[in-house]
Structure formats: C-alpha cells, structure tokens
Task: inverse folding
C-alpha cells in the first residue's frame, strides 16, 4: 500500500475509534461544587418527565417539574465538558441528557449522576455539533460541519453512516430535531403576560423598556406548560390551563463577577463586562452585561437583575466593591459611587467631582464615615452631611488604594501599591513596617481583621500581625496559586485566598494549605471575590460564581 494512502487510512481509523469517553473527573462528590453563570442567553430546550433543560451560554439550567422549582444547574463544576452549550436533547431509551459543546458531546446519566464526554464517534469529530436528531428507531443523529455521526442507543455504540444525504432523507423515519435543524412552528395560544412584558410569538418577548428579545425555542412538558426560551430574557412558562405566561430569571445577569456582598437574606453579585463574547449579542445585551448587579434571595430562591442603563442613579461601569448596613447599600464602580436607600428603594449617585478620581477600588464603612479608595488616593465622606473630601495626608497622596479595613476601635487601615498605612483615631497616618520590610514596601492587596490579628495579602505570601504582642508571621502561598492581585477572607478556622490561578485555604491549626482549581470544581480559575457562607464558600470568577461545600463532614482532605 502506498505511504500516502496508508496515512489516510490511519487517520480514518483514528477518527473511527477515537470515541473518547471521559467520566466527570472532579475531586469532590456531587453537590459539593455548584456554579451559576449567565443562563439568560438560551439556545434550546429539552424535557423529560421530571425536568426541563435549557441549553445556555453558561451551562444547563433545569427546572424540576415535580416540585415546581429550579434545580441546581449543570456546569463544568459538576462534569459538563464546557459551559457554552450549543444544543441539548433527551434520548427516549435511558432518558439520558445529551448536549453538544466545543469540547465534545456530553451525556448525563441521571441514574448514576455521571457525565461521559465523546470527542469523536462514527468517524466524525464531535466538537462542532449544531443539531441533534432523535429517531423513532432508537438512534441519535449528531450533525456538524463534517457530517453526521450516529449513536445506537440499544447497542450503545457509535456507527458510521454511508451517506449523510440518504441518512437525513425520509427513509430514515421520523426524526425529532433539536438545535439548528429544529423547526419552530408555534401552535399554542397567545399567552397573557403581566404589565412588564409583551408576548409576540414566535418572534420575541418585549420587556417594559420596549426592548425585544428573540424567542429561540419552545416546548411543551407533561404538565400542560409551554416553556419558551429567549436570547437575553431567560425563560417563560405558559400555562395551557390559565393561559398565563410567567417569566423566570435564573443565574447571573453577567458572568464576570468582581464583588459579592451578604445583606440580610440576599446575596449581591457585582460584575464587570464579560471577557468572552459568545456571539449573537445585540448592542443592548452587550450593554446589559457591563456593570450589572444580580441579587439572589437565599430564602425564596428568586433572582433579580439591576441594570445600570435602566436604573436611575446607578453609574454605568464595572462594579468593583460593595458595602452595606441595615439602611443602605453602597456600590463602588470605575465610574463613581451610588447608594441605595433600602426603605425608599432609590439609588442616588455621589458627586464624582469631589473625588480624587471616579475610579473606585474599595469602600470601608464606619458609623460616621464612608472611606473611599480609588486609583489615585483616599477619600472620606461624612455620612450625615454627604460631604466628600480627599484625605490630604502627604504619606498617602496619589497612592492606589487596594483595600480598606476598619477595626472595632475605628482605626482605619489601608492597603496600597506602596505598602500599608494606619490612621489612628486622632487622625495621624503611619506606615506599617514588618521585620522583613521588603514584604510591605510593595503592593499589598488585602487587609483582614481577625480579633487581635491583622492579616495582609501580598503577591507571594500571607502576613499576620498580632496587635497585642507585636509579633509577625509569614506564610508562603502555594506556588500554583501565587499570582496577585490576591483576594483573602479570614474565618475562624481558615484564611481563604483567591488569585488568577485558583483558590487556596490555609488552615490555622496545622499550618496546612489546600489548593482548589477548575479541576476540583471551580467554574473558572480566575478568582476575583470571596465570601463565606457558613459551611460554604462562594468564589466570584470571570465565568460566574461557584458555591463550595467545604465543610462536608464526610470528606477527608
């Protein structure tokens, strides 16, 4: 056989037999890692007797029909190959969920709660599948740019069609298509909506601001509901009994989470513009993704979105920091500050001309003042008079303020690009020096108060200062996550660290480090915000938020 022909045969054999199966490979059991991303851009719907599944740009959101509530979504945190899902379908034999992503075709078995991912099958690569066909003879068709691959459900094997053209003809029998080949024929009533929406099937749903969001798919479930997906407005559920259409929000308004805040029963997620564009975004949707706020009610499970372009008083810009007390919430952006009066539900912007710059990096709240860190210095606002003044102390002029911490004695500490400074109650600013002065002469990213201890986060280490004894200790951060700017959060047992390369937990007793990355369950390794929640820790990343059940008593690390 000629060498050239032999090479072609080898390549063909590789394609035929490279039906690579990869079981979900994380270090923790199901439920330890749950992630939420932007699920409101929906490409398609699939349903079985228990769930309705939605293919989105941030993973798979799902609704439990039996208990009438949203279930935990499927993302890379629990085994999905990739969060940008092109198309989904449910097979009629095993009721397995199938989805296509750029990383291959993933199959979820609800009985075992495991994912299997196929990189290729039936002589076709499976990384650009745009349509899935479910046949009446228990086969699945996967169509991509290179043709069609077939999966035989009864024999559990991939097969190679002789001709894609013949395969997709009427001789193949009935095929129910999902994805690009899906035919959307709207044969349902014109559902009634509340005053916030106008339903215009099959083209779009319009919100109260007269923005039209394209309808991408619709499907009836076994409970006489019609589920309607949109590109940007999330999900609608129309009841065939009452003819009422209810709109649901699930997940984040924007995936690039830069700050988080606990406020009573709510968790606030502040965001910046997304780093990735999954295509098809209108100018409106791109604007919505920039500087939006998501508020999640931990009691009711309701998600609420706050968009700056439709909220008077809220600056447009990346949400860099948030603080709150019982009456107000303060939001710091790279374009100024806004305050929410909780009782009046009104946003008020602060005058940016009084700040050293409107590029806000951090906020600190004391009973009498709001301390405002920026990229060009420190400011202070009297909370009663709302008067803002730059702090004129020569030692800290024009410094980049990374973090502000306020002790119970109302001593103010600031972390800057040139070390740490402390303000006494009398108003005097002093630079803090440790025994190894090189540690605190450069950038310090975080300060955390821990009773008598003060923790500092620098690029390569954690520093602990005991205010009673004056002792200093240094703990080197594991090399795998050693990359600033760091985020740290101190709890009773641990010090949590977030960086561009993942997260780590330092156990105070035993001086033990534990490292967490996307291989464990983070939705993305670039951790930009941390927030403890009892036995859970929330991580804000560029691709969404991950809730980690770190204190599972059944786990041994």
Result:
């Amino acid at each position: 056989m000629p060498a050239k022909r032999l090479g072609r045969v080898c390549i063909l054999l590789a394609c035929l037999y490279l039906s690579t199966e990869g079981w979900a490979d994380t270090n923790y059991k199901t439920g330890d890692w749950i992630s939420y991303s932007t699920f409101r851009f929906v490409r398609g719907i699939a349903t079985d007797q228990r769930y309705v599944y939605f293919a989105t740009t941030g993973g798979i959101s799902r609704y439990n029909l039996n208990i009438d509530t949203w279930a935990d979504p499927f993302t890379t945190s629990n085994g999905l190959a990739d969060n940008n899902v092109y198309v989904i379908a449910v097979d009629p034999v095993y009721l397995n969920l199938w989805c296509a992503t750029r990383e291959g075709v993933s199959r979820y078995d609800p009985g075992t709660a495991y994912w299997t991912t196929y990189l290729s099958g039936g002589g076709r690569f499976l990384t650009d599948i745009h349509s899935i066909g479910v046949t009446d003879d228990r086969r699945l068709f996967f169509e991509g740019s290179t043709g069609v691959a077939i999966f035989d459900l009864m024999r559990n094997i991939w097969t190679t069609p002789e001709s894609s053209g013949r395969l997709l003809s009427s001789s193949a029998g009935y095929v129910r298509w999902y994805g690009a080949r899906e035919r959307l024929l709207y044969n349902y009533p014109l559902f009634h909506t509340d005053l916030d929406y106008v339903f215009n099937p099959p083209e779009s749903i319009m919100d109260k601001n007269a923005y039209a969001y394209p309808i991408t798919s619709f499907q009836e479930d076994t409970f006489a509901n019609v589920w309607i997906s949109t590109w940007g407005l999330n999900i609608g559920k129309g009841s065939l009994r009452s003819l009422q259409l209810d709109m649901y929000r699930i997940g984040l308004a924007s995936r690039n989470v830069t700050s988080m805040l606990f406020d009573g029963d709510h968790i606030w997620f502040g965001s910046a513009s997304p780093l990735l564009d999954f295509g098809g975004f209108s100018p409106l949707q791109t604007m919505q993704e920039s500087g939006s706020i998501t508020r999640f009610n931990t009691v009711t499970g309701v998600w609420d979105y706050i968009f700056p372009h439709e909220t008077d008083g809220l600056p447009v810009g990346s949400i860099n920091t948030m603080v709150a007390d019982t009456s107000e919430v303060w939001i710091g952006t790279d374009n100024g500050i806004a305050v929410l009066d909780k009782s009046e539900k009104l946003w008020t912007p602060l005058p940016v001309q009084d700040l050293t710059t409107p590029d806000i990096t951090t906020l600190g709240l004391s009973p009498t003042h709001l301390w405002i860190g920026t990229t060009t210095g420190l400011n202070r606002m009297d909370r009663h008079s709302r008067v803002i003044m730059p702090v004129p102390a020569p030692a800290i002029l024009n410094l980049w303020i990374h973090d502000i911490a306020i002790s119970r004695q109302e001593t103010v500490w600031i972390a800057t690009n040139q070390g740490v400074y402390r303000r006494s109650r009398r108003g005097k600013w002093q630079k803090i020096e440790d025994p190894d002065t090189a540690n605190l002469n450069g950038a310090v990213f975080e300060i955390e108060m821990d009773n008598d201890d003060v923790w500092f986060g620098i690029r390569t280490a954690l520093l602990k200062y005991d205010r009673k004894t004056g002792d200093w200790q240094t703990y080197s951060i594991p090399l795998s996550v050693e990359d600033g700017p760091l985020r740290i959060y101190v709890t009773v047992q641990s010090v949590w660290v977030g960086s561009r390369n993942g997260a780590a937990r330092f156990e105070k007793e035993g001086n033990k480090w534990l490292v967490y990355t996307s291989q464990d369950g983070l939705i993305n390794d670039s951790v930009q915000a941390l927030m403890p929640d009892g036995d859970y820790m929330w991580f804000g990343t560029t691709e969404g938020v991950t809730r980690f059940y770190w204190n599972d008593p059944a786990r041994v690390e």
User: Anything to note?
Assistant: Confidence is low (pLDDT under 50) at residues 1-25. DSSP finds three helices and 50 strands in the chain.
